[in-house]
Amino acid sequence: MNIEFLKKIMNERNISIYRLSKLTKLRDSGLGMIINGKREDPKISTIVKIAKALNLTDDEFIELCGYKSHKQD
């Protein structure tokens, strides 16, 4: 998971860990561990909940998962 990308999106959208926990219905302590790098490989279901809560595009979701998006123009 691309933690730096997650932090960037949260910062741009002014969303705190507490707010994200409410949007995802995940514990704020668990999200904090992910964001602080103490939980390296969250479940895909957790990543999907985060992506949905942040209304990420497909390309943003790919980047959140730790992959580079290769858009075809």
TrEMBL record:
UniProt cross-references to PROSITE patterns, sorted A to Z: HTH_CROC1
Check the record and name the InterPro entries matching this protein. Answer: Cro/C1-type_HTH, Lambda_DNA-bd_dom_sf
Domain of life assignment: Bacteria
CDD domains of this UniProt entry?
HTH_XRE (cd00093)
Span of domain HTH cro/C1-type: 6-61
One Gene Ontology MF term:
DNA binding
Gene3D superfamilies, per database record: lambda repressor-like DNA-binding domains
Name recorded for this polypeptide: Helix-turn-helix transcriptional regulator
What species is given as this protein's source? Candidatus Erysipelatoclostridium merdavium
What does UniProt list as this organism's lineage? Bacteria, Bacillati, Bacillota, Erysipelotrichia, Erysipelotrichales
